[in-house]
Amino acid sequence: MSTYKNLIGKDVKFLSTDPDNEQAEGQIWYNSTAGVFKDALVSQAWSSGGNMITGRRYLAAAGTQTAGLAFGGNHTGSDSDNETEEYDGSGWANGGNLNTARAYLAGCGTQTAGLAFGGSTHPSPPTQAVTEEYDGSSWTESGDLNTARRGLAGAGTQTAAVAFAGSVATPTYSTATEKYDGTSWTAGNSMSTARRYLAGAGLQTAGLAFGGMTPPGTASALTEEYDGTNWTSGGTLNTARGYLAGAGIQTSALAMAGYNDKANTEEYDGTSWSNKPAMATGREGVGGNGTTSAALVFGGKTGPVQSATEEFNKSVNVITGAAWTSGGNMNQGRYLLAGCGAAESALLGAGGYGPPAPSSNTYKIVEEYNGTSWSEVNDIPAIKSRFRAAGTQTAAVTFGGFTPLGPNTNYNTTEKYDGTNWTTSGTMNTARAYMAGFGTQTAAVSAGGANLNPDVGYNKTEEYNGTAWSEVNNMPNYFRNQAGVGVLTAGLTSGGKEGPSGASYPGIVNTTTSLEYDGTNWTAGGTSLFTGGNPSGGGTQSVAWFAGYPGTNNNFHYNGTSFVTSVSTSITHSAAASGAPQTSGVIFAGYDGGSPGLVASTEEFTPESSALNIKTITTS
User: pLDDT over 90 for what percent of the chain?
Assistant: First the structure.
């Protein structure tokens, strides 16, 4: 008689706590604390990744889930994009642009050795034969396809690729196959079924073609397998569809999204297709890459063009994607307020602005957040907005600002908070608003900003020692409306507006410049992915986050060198306040662009996590 040990090779273990590693997969153990038998099962699910920088459809892809590449596409239907974006497993960063902007192209290879071929441009010519190779930084043109096509698919590597099907000119459908050797394309044997807007997977000598649109525009469920010479029929998709994406190899592939059943996912085992969990956002015209256990889908359209990214994982671990979740609402909705705090459970929000009733409604209200709810505490001494705060909930400092009440007033005042009371302590040398601020109560920095009514801009930097302010080295240009994070000896500013020193408001523009401060000098940081005034942020100089740019709910992370996208907040929090590190950032209040547009809500960030998919064994 076979026993569990004979079958599996291991005894049933008696454990007081569940294991926390993947070696538990397929094993059975007895949890003596709970008094039950348990095992760990493989789970399959989609989770959210960071949004693309530029949402688009009919784009191409290469690489893997943790090192992905997206290129080309369009976002209006009458344009062609040349943008390239690179995915690091959590978010997107800019890569080098294609030399020929195009949509409906195909791609294969890796993030550092990618291949782009075919497609169409706007305006004419409608189809392209252009091939380009990517080295991880830039694209270089190589040998053209023999037949220019759009809506084609491909598989393989940068030096051994195969291109198949597509459309030579509307409304034709192609069966053409071409093979690439790293330099040029040669014609191969034709496919059995002419089609376009299909997906591909695998290698040049073991390729897979599936789905697509066949004449006169009918969604196809057909699969064909390629051995490097000939095409043969494979298993039929359960759902016929075109404009889909593929991932994996010939004997283990995924079909994802597409026209007809936009959320559907199917897996191929070399013989037949089986349905898998559906995507959260059904769409067509997507890009996709990866394997059957770790795939990626991005962009496309649901009607509107999408920037959403989703990750598919098949693992003994349950993957929970990064997300912003709702926290407690502030008692008073407002924007252009000051905020600080080093932890999700200990934040401070002070002052702010809140039209429309009355039109110049400015506050001195202060609220504290405990991770669940906001409570009002003692007011700051002055009614003001457009100012900054630094420090923690129990040791904060606020400085500068502006009020439109009475005569318009620009502030140079400083207020310190001990967790209960506010005291006035020291004045900045230059009264101003809209500056960047960061640091602690006894070592704070105020940089840039402007006087209002009339508008005069500054590049001034001042440091606060807990008692007094002193002027130090200027910023390299005039900056205002920026977010600041970090400490006095390692600070970072991003977003906002930039212009020549001393420029007035009409003379400056939204900027992608970020600056790093070392306690003495300012130097350029990585280029921001978004522009606009009054974002918010948190973290340190090398591990920072920024959100709340006007007109968007995008969220960006900074790694000390470059910016990458992350999952978006649920609404726009323009001119909001924020605090806490990158792994648990909090953004609160602000303006969402509506009418009246005031936001009282709080959102909290939770990074991606994984946990063993442990199940209790029952007899039912």
Answer: 79
